[in-house]
Amino acid sequence: MHETMNPFLTYLLEASFCLVVWYGVYGLLFRRATHLGFNRFFLLGATVLSVGLPLIHVSWPAAFAGDVAAPMFLERVSAQAQRLWLPEVQISATRTGLPLPSPAALGWGIYLAGMLGSAAFLVYRTAKVLACIRRGRQTQATDYRVVQLADHLPTFSFFRYLCLAPAPDLDEASQRALIAHEEAHIRGLHSWDVLGLNLVKICFWFHPAVYLIERDLRELHEFIADRRTVASQSPTSYARLLAQQALAGAGLSLTHSFHQFHIKQRITMLQKNHVPLAWWKGAAAVAIALTLGVLVSCEQDSTASAEPTAATTIAQMDEEAINQELTRYKEKYGEEIEYFTIPDAKLRELGVALPEATPADKQNIRALFDRLHELDQQNALNQSPSDEVFLVVEEQPAPVGGMEAVTSYLQENLAYPAQARRMGIEGRVFVEFIIEKDGTISNVKSVKGIGAGCDAEAVRVVSEMPNWNPGKQSGQAVKVKMVLPIMFKLDDKTSSLFSHPTRSFLPLSLLPKDQC
After folding, report:
1. Which UniProt keywords apply (predicted)?
2. Mean pLDDT over residues 255-279, rounded?
3. Cβ neighbours of residue 472 under 8 Å, at least 6 residues apart?
4. Domain range for residue 466?
């Protein structure tokens, strides 16, 4: 699906979409039908497919991949990366107060709390049922254990346990019907269905469809058990028994009790004649399963061979077409797509985390920038040499006094924003600027930042930086574009808003001026 999204969040969204679609199909086509066995299979299968399909990934060939990044281009970019990037400068500060969680961290915290709460509630309910079973007197039947309940609870079944409550007001025929009903639950393995749904509910505790599926599945269990019971009972007398027990106490959750769910609906279902499943409904279910499989499991295979004309197409693009393509990629991956032209090893060295992109898209982005660079050079032939901005030059620009002077300047002038310290924001800000022919700084901007005032502060200080020795090409001073990474880093100590921390004299680090 979407490459740039957190994988687990992508999974939750895809699985949630499947749950909504499947339950909608069930409600429209099957919910009030009499083919109970199929309905049970449908709900269980829909749940399994919903949580399983997003985990399966099937690739198909890319439509626009191609080998568009030639070795010569990669060599040029690699050389450019070594010349364009300046050494990183780290800015350190002490936190002020407790850091505020980001919206993403807060959202994941709420989700994990919901998971833990759901899991704890499931353990609690299971322990409560097992405690009731342990307190009862047990005897072995043919294929299950009979438990004479000591608690004031209605008769229920739980896996291989049939828990009988005293029922002095029922005659022998009614008691046999009640036991036959619970035996149907035991032999139908209905408790496994409920347990499985509750395990799914731990991950999808927020999703209404999971609760609706569990409700309908438990209702189906009662319909199935009722139908099997009346096979050896009179439907009229059994319906009368259901009506008599309608006001009995509620049973334990996770169990199957004779008194659970709407008695009126159960009586109505008993009176319906069995209608076979219509073929078109089954076909519709299969078609929907295949469609969902394609939507959530199939993805473009960036490694497969693609159209051989891709490189030729990019080579023939004009500047307007290239900018349109780059705009499309920026909408997909963000404004920092130019950094896809930097080799991955250099990005890892700098600690730059870019959105994940397919190799085909990376190749196309590199080819587009390569073509744009060629067009810029062609335009430069028709312009004054002073208008051209170089990325790679024979003699690189250098700050007066070397990088030590730059570090000293930043230590004197750059302040760690109070908002960033308060929110616990840290990370790298990449500041791009041009060294003019006379060594002045121009066109300063943050090309990748962290917000909370850090980007603006970095741009402000770099804009006021002293003049550099300009870069030279063929002995002439030229304009050169540079990138300076600035690392904003908070230490591990948390101070109050009224504390007075002192300056740290670590090399290549800086504490904000307002803490001096």
Report:
1. Cell inner membrane, Cell membrane, Membrane, Protein transport, Transmembrane, Transmembrane helix, Transport
2. 71
3. 393, 394, 395, 478
4. 398-488
